[in-house]
Amino acid sequence: MAIDNTSVITPEQDRIGANADGPRPGDVIVTDNLWKTYEMGDQQVHALRGVDIRIRHNEYVAIMGPSGSGKSTLMNLIGCLDSPSQGKYWLNGHDVSELNDDELARIRNKEIGFVFQTFNLLARATSLHNVELPLIYNGTPAAERLARAKEVLTSVNLGERMMHKPNELSGGQRQRVAIARALVNHPSIILADEPTGNLDSKTSVEIMALFDDLHAKGNTIVLVTHEPDIAEFAHRVISIRDGSVASDGPSKRVKKDGPVSSVNVNDPKETIASIHAKEVDAKKNEKKEKA
User: Is the pLDDT of residue 265 over 60?
Assistant: First the structure.
């Protein structure tokens, strides 16, 4: 993160952002000249420097960057866990950049489904109760929330594990419970922070295959990661460096005719490395055909 010794607004901060016109039809996330600055004594630390991004409904986007790049700060702003120091952020058409804490909490519950690296499940609660929690917070009637929780658990292949507690589940199953909890409110976006960070390679592939399925069903997914191989499961990669967007474009996985390879989660040899090996082979074959 860059350090600035002055509190004066610079021309860079005062610029008109690329997304000053705000959200357009079909947009779910729009940021315009987004800054996050922390005061450290007589210094200012700019964690984000004028970030302009636009994500549309049903996009599958990875936000990638090394430690200290600003990606976690950006995730906190997108997730309405914090407010920007400057700039605008529209979520599903609503300007959320100047909301207070209570208003942000309501937006989070309604619009965002979170999936965390550490699962964040209640240890003494069943899978069913963990998934019900967001519906309890927003006052959904008991019968409706029970039905919806059962529905999403079944959709992530945990229909037979509803009454199991986290310590009775594998790491992959716990992450599936967390994903079901993220889905239960029918959010505008699924925001996944390092969702495979605590999983082995095979289980990571299974979870990423589930995200593929969720995207195919119409969900908007924003994946935050520092791992390039995980980012390449998305269809678009936004790279953050020194608090700014360094690059933004299609992932290597995406071609004109769609993803290069599919994932067979039932094959124990199907790891992240093997998937990328297939992609390399596909590119070699393509070059041979052109030659």
Answer: no
